[in-house]
Amino acid sequence: MPRPRVVIVGGGFAGAFTAKYLRKYAKDSIEIELINAENYFVFQPLLPEVASGTISAPDAVTPLRYMLPGVKFRMAEVTHVDADAKRVHFLQGSRRVPQSVAYDQLVLAVGQKTNLSFAPGLAEHSVCMRNLADAHQLRNKIIRRLEHADVTEDAELKQRLLTFVVGGGGFSGVETIGEVAEMVARTLKFYPNIATAEVRHVLVQRGPRLLEELPERLGLYAQEKLAARGIDIRLNTSIASATGNDVYLDDGTSIPSCLLVTTVGNGPSTFTTGLGINLERGKIPVDANLRAIDRDDTWALGDAALIPLPSEDGEPRFAPPTAQFATREAKCVAKNIVRSLAGEAPEQFDFTPQGSLASIGNYKGVAQIFGLRLSGLIAWMLWRFLYIGMLPGFATRLRVALNWGFDYFLPRSIVQIANQTESATLYRYFAKGDTVSFPGQRVDGFYTVTEGCLESRIPVDGEAEDFVRVIGPGDHWGERSLSNNTTTLGTLTATDNTRVMVLKRRDFNNLRNTFPALDDYFKSINDKIYAPHLRQQKEPTCK
Amino acid sequence: MPRPRVVIVGGGFAGAFTAKYLRKYAKDSIEIELINAENYFVFQPLLPEVASGTISAPDAVTPLRYMLPGVKFRMAEVTHVDADAKRVHFLQGSRRVPQSVAYDQLVLAVGQKTNLSFAPGLAEHSVCMRNLADAHQLRNKIIRRLEHADVTEDAELKQRLLTFVVGGGGFSGVETIGEVAEMVARTLKFYPNIATAEVRHVLVQRGPRLLEELPERLGLYAQEKLAARGIDIRLNTSIASATGNDVYLDDGTSIPSCLLVTTVGNGPSTFTTGLGINLERGKIPVDANLRAIDRDDTWALGDAALIPLPSEDGEPRFAPPTAQFATREAKCVAKNIVRSLAGEAPEQFDFTPQGSLASIGNYKGVAQIFGLRLSGLIAWMLWRFLYIGMLPGFATRLRVALNWGFDYFLPRSIVQIANQTESATLYRYFAKGDTVSFPGQRVDGFYTVTEGCLESRIPVDGEAEDFVRVIGPGDHWGERSLSNNTTTLGTLTATDNTRVMVLKRRDFNNLRNTFPALDDYFKSINDKIYAPHLRQQKEPTCK
């Protein structure tokens, strides 16, 4: 008899720990598969330290395969769930071929996506702090600004380049500005033309104080320490809009700056909105056992789920979106899956955290733990030890601890690893006879032939002969599938050695939607190329 | 009296060491400026180890500012040299504004660019090993292939995903395949569905043996060791072409593989070809003192220069493009600049290397040093110590040495940092009243307005009124400057809050050159929009 298969979507705290606990409770009696777009687990609270170069990227992440022995791991991008057929669909491999896997129980731990639509210009001009790529991007931008400020002769531009703005005064925002300020301060000695007084850091917080997740005293301590380091803190203030040159605030003032980090603004991903579940507050509603409402075989947890907590006064309470809660929820989901497969009643979720910690940079932290309030170096060390304890294996822990120790007495690296801004237009080469695509594939871009020749054969219902189209230099394909979001109908073969230019899916759609001449052109040619009655008249255009 | 200014273009071994020696010999009597596109010096021989994760990126590079105290560093992309005006021109900052700096003496240490045009498909489908971004790209591709191979059910695809091909059997090729094979072998335990026997490594070498730079015995030792580790070595074979699925060899066979690393194929950059110097063998010819032929104030060295060596038999000999030679050439150029500024006669360049080293992965190396031939662990350790000795500062050396030590007993990281495939179509937001561009700027992309409105004002010779163009949703700008490679003529101002889509310069040009409909469109509108006689008739199209 096949073992029941539990598919977990998402590899953050919620998903990874569900897999870990399931493996612990169910041993080999359950087949566990975890699907995630990246092959590693990010310790998200450390991202600001990656951005500042305090720790290197490999120290802030753990490969999921290494963390989860006995769990089948699949690196893929989930697209949707077919709840009736009990299958999860995803795009796999570099060609993003659509595939699916069946589940008996489904765990949704998909987190949230950044949604910056609350203020114009934020999506275009701010850096977030969600994943490693964000941390690298922030790091590169800071160094680029310093490099530029050191050589420019334009005083106004220099001031703008040296002003760093962070939006959001929660954990992520406070840690980010603390780390950025420390990084800049420590690297200035390499920039002889920048004076310390020319650098400006601004923290913009909507609420009346920082770190509203923590007791007031700790929030005030963090605020005092940051202010003493020269950080300009704007409380009760929101970002109204941003351009590449200025950040506009809701009090009518603006800050000339070309580096804005936004740590607020979340919403459901298109995967979540496409689940067919009625979301509440943008999240998946679950019952007290963490089971999705109306779906017996589906569980949801973490930032993506709206999780009710027991309430004494009848006022509804929900679990906050923190790593601490996510790991506890994971334990509860794992237990409840094992129980429900054994025909037992599930447990209710309840949890009261024992403590909270935040780092504010410069070897200072704030903490509340088992009722004690701590601040300064001791809180910062606690925060570091907590992370080291989560690393798998003694040797890894030792290496990370030593590297952190070195940070005390080594100059901070200012290496700016080029953004390798991959261009949207790639080129591909096919040898004569190569099959370029089969029926049923998702087209990944808009293709134009630069040299060579291809042949497309599409079967026509009720006709013996295929619709044949010869595609030569200057001809193109893919626009129809991209615009209608369909898969390929026919087989495309290179009839000569052929070089093509590819404009990627997203870029093609952006361009077509924005630039009317292009849209007009594609509308006008649609009938000419594809209308089947034209196929007899179609003349080959290649040699 | 102002100090003479020496401008050095390029921050590799040749450029960085010229700056270092100049500073040493001339102290403060010369102003030294070094211009490089990246702000760090890469120890290029370590790139294969970065790709394999043996060392992390920060350990393979040193920030130029840290390495070169007292030298003015400028991160910029050089475009050309005006030899008459004695100025170097470059693009600076994220907006790539054209600027220039004057020199008294110019040092060209610009290296070479990869040129893969010798075989079709190589430019499209192979990874190089030139800089940190290449090493990261290779690393990510290998891990992506392993992730995909572990979950695919297509046996043929699996074989293709698990076949790794390296082109070139010199230092770089041998080190790369050695490191890649070691990395894959050490990480397979995390991929339960991949058997060791399924992985295949192929090294393709045009010449009759490996490491032709070293004595035959060492080349044969490397070959034997690599073959013993299961690497398939194809001597006297060249790559004829490559697609995303197959590597075609000149013996008529092909290897199904979707990961090809090419370590051969070099040529001059467009900067070098644009110098106005008659290149020989694609390089800048210099005299025995490393001074460029016919240019008294210009010196060239490193891979970009064709450097004659003293010859006993009258047969012309040239310096090989190695790091060892480049650092010696740097010393000679620095001395000669100091001498020539003091009115003394320059020295001739001559150098006979004391030894050569190559790592072949798996803690093995081959070396010839002071006449001794070494191989195995001892050669590998020598190779590592050599690098550690080049690092600046005791603490950095200790950290790097310890991290290398840890590599023995720690599992290899398999973190695949997402390629953050930045889309080519970006969006920018401008607030009402913002000046978007001034006259004389280089346009960085093709802009289309998605919402809002802008006004362009271009002064017209001999007329009192400017040419005014109102640019609204669906309208665009930038195409003329991009296609003609000119700078902006007028001032562009946002007359409302405005959001625009940007297709970057290179992508726009690729698209326009490949896709005839787009080119036709731009030709047809050129007169309509820009012909000055139309300016009175132009009606505003925005609200």
Description:
2 copies of one chain form a homodimer. Chain A has a 7-stranded mixed beta sheet. Chain A has a 5-stranded parallel beta sheet with strand order 10-17-11-12-13. Chain A is globular, with a radius of gyration of 27 Å. Chain A is of the alpha/beta class. Mean pLDDT of chain A is 88; it is low at 532-543. In chain A, a hairpin with a 4-residue loop joins strand 6 (87-92) and strand 7 (97-102). In chain A, helix 5 (132-151) packs antiparallel against helix 6.
- What would you call the structural class of chain A? alpha/beta
Strand order of the largest sheet of chain A: 7-6-5-2-1-8-20
Helix content of chain A: 25-40%
Poorly predicted runs of chain A are 532-543
Q: So what's the oligomer here?
A: homodimer
For the termini of chain A, the CA-CA separation is 60 Å
**Biggest sheet details of chain A:** 7 strands, mixed
Number of strands of chain A: 34
Put simply, the count of helices of chain A is: 15
Summarize the entry for a quick read.
The structure is a homodimer of 543-residue chains. The first copy, chain A, is an alpha/beta fold and 543 residues long.
Short descriptors:
homodimer; 543 residues; alpha/beta; five-stranded parallel beta sheet; 34 strands; 31% helix; 27% strand
Question: Secondary-structure blueprint of this entry?
Answer:
The structure is a homodimer of 543-residue chains.
Chain A: E1 5-9, H1 13-26, E2 31-36, E3 40-42, H2 47-52, E4 61-63, H3 64-67, E5 72-82, E6 87-92, E7 97-102, E8 105-108, E9 113-114, H4 122-125, E10 126-127, H5 132-151, H6 155-161, E11 163-167, H7 171-187, E12 200-204, H8 216-228, E13 232-234, E14 239-242, E15 246-249, E16 254-256, E17 259-262, E18 266-267, H9 270-273, E19 284-285, E20 298-300, E21 305-306, E22 308-309, E23 317-318, H10 323-341, E24 355-361, E25 364-369, E26 372-376, H11 377-390, H12 394-409, E27 425-430, E28 435-437, E29 445-451, E30 454-458, E31 467-471, E32 476-477, H13 479-484, E33 491-494, E34 498-504, H14 505-514, H15 516-530
Parallel strand pairs in A: 1-2, 1-8, 2-5, 8-20, 10-17, 11-12, 11-17, 12-13, 19-21
Antiparallel strand pairs in A: 3-4, 5-6, 6-7, 9-18, 14-15, 15-16, 22-23, 24-25, 25-26, 27-34, 28-33, 29-32, 29-34, 30-31, 30-33
Helix pairs in contact in A: 1-10, 5-6, 14-15
